[in-house]
Amino acid sequence: xxxxxxxxxxxxxxxxxxxxxxxxxxxxxxxxxxxxxxxxxxxxxxxxxxxxxxxxxxxxxxxxxxxxxxxxxxxxxxxxxxxxxxxxxxxxxxxxxxxxxxxxxxxxxxxxxxxxxxxxxxxxxxxxxxxxxxxxxxxxxxxxxxxxxxxxxxxxxxxxxxxxxxxxxxxxxxxxxxxxxxxxxxxxxxxxxxxxxxxxxxxxxxxxxxxxxxxxxxxxxxxxxxxxxxxxxxxxxxxxxxxxxxxxxxxxxxxxxxxxxxxxxxxxxxxxxxxxxxxxxxxxxxxxxxxxxxxxxxxxx
Length: 301
Known about the structure:
With about 300 residues, this protein is an alpha+beta fold. The protein has helices at about 5-15, 45-55, 60-70, 85-95, 130-135, and strands spanning about 20-25, 25-30, 35-40, 75-80, 100, 110-115, 120-125, 145-160, 165-175, 180-185, 210-215, 220-230, 235-240, 245-255, 265-275, 280-285, 290. The strands form four sheets. Strands 4, 5, 6, 7, 8, 9 and 10 form a seven-stranded mixed β-sheet that branches. The longest helix has 15 residues, at about 5-15. The protein starts with a helix and ends in a 10-residue tail after the last strand. The model is unreliable at about 1-40 and about 295-300 (pLDDT under 50).
């Protein structure tokens, strides 16, 4: 058997594993769910993995638990309305450099209630003001800082896996600012065990893990994520597979150059357009087989 024939047979086998029929350049229709994957330049192996993740999650117990729980996909830290006064304050926030002047109050009660705009609520333990402060004040360098002078318990609205919700929040008074910095005062529930394992191999140019979800468009028809790549390539690409119950994102690196290269890791925002609003569908990472994490270090729920 020639090398060319063997390679062709391998590609055909991978397409069969994807469980779908090719209907056009870079698109896939499968399982009668109206799923569509736009995967220009993506390998059949990556498409097969995305289908595996979607099939495992759709209708699973983990998916049902995700839709019943509290899982933020929006900012758990919200800035004062007049932020920022200058570049130094912006840098201080980015570096998580805060100083505390005064005492922080104790939580007035043990529990708080999350209330969804679409209906329904959930009671969860309240985070102490000190815990909320330490979640945002993780910097420790000698650069500029923001000064917290007090806090009180209030509310904030953020996006969750079940749509917009009003949640308890600690409202921190910042020196020089007329409105508070808000930090959600309840933590998300621990997700159920995913119904699919991460890929066995480490990161490669075929499939990469996504760093985080940055945000969802107001109309829900696009999501922005951070994908990683190296210094000797053309950057990241993110393909999408949509089903009725999930949206699976497959990240990869394109144009990787052969030969010596630095080990520099670069992060890039990538906006992925969807065929229809995300809604209550679960946003999944094909590499990990888990929901794409929201927020950066220190700003996660």
